[in-house]
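Ticket #4471: structure output looks truncated?

Reporter: J.K.
Steps to reproduce: submitted the chain below (292 residues) through the standard prediction queue, then opened the result file.
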Amino acid sequence: MRMLKGIVLACCLTAPLLAQNESLLIGPGDDVNVEVFDTPDLDQNSRVTDAGEFPLMLGGTVRLASLTPAEAARTIEAALIRSHVMYYPRVLVTVTQYATQTVTVFGQVVKPGTYSIDTPRSVVDVLGLAGGLTDLADRHVTIERHTSHRQVSYYVSNRADDLLDQKVMVNPGDKLVVPKAGIIYVLGDVARPGGYPMTNNDGTLTVLQAVATAGGTASSAAPNSSRLIRRTAVGGYQSDPIPFSAMQKGKKPDIPLQAGDIVYVPFSYLRNAALGVTSIAAAATGAALYVK
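Returned output as attached by the reporter:
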């Protein structure tokens, strides 16, 4: 019997240490089991209230929401000591049932919806449940924690090592939002004029990269008369010249693009080179959209 008690005590002492690594936190509605070593009369299994609190039989009410089981055990021990119920309590806390065992995936995935998970899963696993990213997905996704509503940003890289990194996990009850990628437009005398999502590995594009993606300039183009057209904060457009040849030769830095930007490479014909900003912007609205 003494040996059995020693084994139980060792388990109670080591279990909280192991639980410290848990990323799944206690939340409202969870069923929580509390075991007090050597005092079975204080053992109980109750539900965490919507306010995140847990009513103890002795020791009052303690707040357990957003704590790991190990942290919850220390909180209950402190409450028992503070209420003079016990001097040296040893508590073990386990979650017998999580109230929320689903994750909801919104936005640019193949199958948006709610999926069952009962343990923390990697972002890649959850995206896989939803069928993966669409061709228009922005790789900067957001995870909203169900216990604290804190938002965590995660970048879904194309690189295998980064993609398999599991430092950020999705917990039951969390929401994962995949926004639509920004689109830039390359119009005028290029091989494939149209819109291009900013879905490369780092989510950015420059003028030269965008023109290359559009198949490059045609032999009849006037690239040195190219313009960058960008919407202003007040709703209009501004047009700036692009030093195309200087950028190609490395004499000028390549220009990073923003979502909604239009790179216009005019034809050598004067009538097309003189197109107004409004006309070019209007053409962008009906441009073909190219995805990989």
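Triage note (M.O.): checked the attachment and the full token line is present. The chain has eight helices and 17 strands.
Status: closed, working as intended.
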